[in-house]
Every structure is written in C-alpha cells, then in structure tokens.
Input
Amino acid sequence: MTLNDEQLRGLVNAAQLYETWRDVKAQLAQLPGGMYWRVIHSKEYLYQYLKGPAGQQTKSLGPRTPKTEEEHHEFEETKKALDERCAGVEARIKEYAPMWRVLRLPAIDRSAGRILRALDQSDFVGKSIMVIGTYALKAYEVASASDFSTGMDATDDLDVTLCLGAENIDPDVPRRLLLTLRQADKSFIVTTNSAGTLVNKDGYKIDLLTNHAAASHYSSSLPWKPIALEGQEWLLLGTPVDTVAIDFTGWPVRIVAPDPRYFALHKLWLSKRPGRPAAKRAKDGRQGKALLDAIQLHMSHYPFDTAFIASLPPALRNELPTDISAPAPAIDTAIDIPPP
Output
C-alpha cells in the first residue's frame, strides 16, 4: 500500500528535524563537558572537563589571563546557544511526535530507536554498521514510500552487521560499539552462550554479525566478538538505503540498511537453508517476496538490470523470480549497404 501525502510529508519533516537535532548534538559533543575556575595557591586557573567512554577527564588550560577569560566566555556563549537550539528542535519533535504516530509512519520499537540514535551520534551507523533483520524493512518502507511489512513486526532484538570493507577494517570497532551502548544503557552485557550477543536487564538483545572473510580481523575482539555467518558479505554489495523512520514514541531514528535487492534475495536464500528453524524460514520467505514486490512497484532506482544480475553471486542469482531476468541484448537491425 502506497503511503499517502500526509505520511510522506510527515517523513520529510521527521528527516529534516532529525538531521538538525543530530547536527546540534554533534556540535555539543565537540565541546568540553564544562569549564570552571579553580583556585590553587591563591591563584585562579581555568579547567575543563571532558566526558567520554573512559569516564571524565580534567585538564588545566592555564592561569587566569585575558586569553583564558575569553576562552571561558566563548565556551559559555557557544554552549548556551547550542543548548537553546537543541531544546528548540526537541520541542518541535515532541510537538510532531503524536501526529506522526497517528499517521502510522514506518516505526520501530522504542528500545531499538534509542540504541540506534546513540550509535548514530557516535558516527557508527552507515559507516561501521548497517541494520539487518526485520528492522531493515522499515527503512525499505520509507525508501519505497509504501507499507508492506504488516504482520512482520520485529522481536525483541536488533541485528546489525559490520559494513567495513577489507580496506578499512578496524578491529577495535566492537569494543567502541560496546562502550557507546553502555553509555546509553549500562546494563548491557555479553551473553554467556554467545560472544556476539548483548543483552540488557530487560532481556533486549543485540546481535553483531560479520562475514567469514572479515571474521579473522575480529578474532581477538573482547568482550564483544562479531558472529561470522555465511552470506553476510552479500549484504555489503550495491547501494545501501539511508532513511529516517520513527520509533513507537514518535521520535525520529536513522536506519541504514543494505541494498534492498541483495537483502530480498538473501532472505529468500535463508528461507531454504537446511537446519534453519521452520518459523524463521517461513518469515524469511514472506519478507523476501514482499520486498521484491515493493522494489518492482515503487523502487525503480534499484533496477533488476543486466549489470545488477551480472553482479549476483550464483547462490543469489538462483533466487531471482522467473519474471525477473536480464534484458535481452539489443538486436542490430541496421542494413549494411555496400558502397557504390
């Protein structure tokens, strides 16, 4: 079902406000946590403190001079202006959020929204990780301006895959991801039965995945180590979808998901994997077929053309529906006329 004009307008507003909010938060993150004057041996010194994953760090900027007084004044003015902008944007979001919920914009649960916003503020989303699993379908709903995932709601877990290519793999990413997540929710711990799964006090899980080719680079990652699964490398192909949806509270959330064509065919491939639970296989098949339909109907910018089909690994090419095939090569109908 195609989203109506009000829903599309809501998505545009949500994306614009989120981008403004994210920008202001990024500027605030670049500032020290605070500045203050401290008296040592009857002399004033300017100190700043920084908050980070490792805790709070304090640094002296020197004794009180016209220069340090100007630094302190500039910090206070900049922070005040950014705080006011942030408060203004958040007030607008709170004003719109009930309307966006009523409009039934593509939405994910509150926990996933909070987690993804924290990861995005630390610049991981789209650069180090992509969202996969059922939550990715919400990104595809936004990208296709249609609603096709009814009955395919996500369970209480979030699946993300590392999207770093061979040329920029960073073995420290899992550790930094975990530090960021623990700043958002300090109850997250690595489960005892899987080094690639986090769980919080409410039982909400996050699975970190990667492909077999990259797995060796993360073999020493502790305590969170990505799980290597067959087929994850296919999700790094093509052009990812980068969208803004909302969570169930109405707050915007950025979702970057794999190229929908590879994702859909990967889902169909998963639906036939021996040993995969029957309920998951059935869900994979429904999701893959629904997404293929949405791509063909509403996402012409993701064509099933000759170049795409040629790029497919054999396992995914086998999942192409019979009505999707490479365009026939052009026939040269020109008639050669011999010279007089």
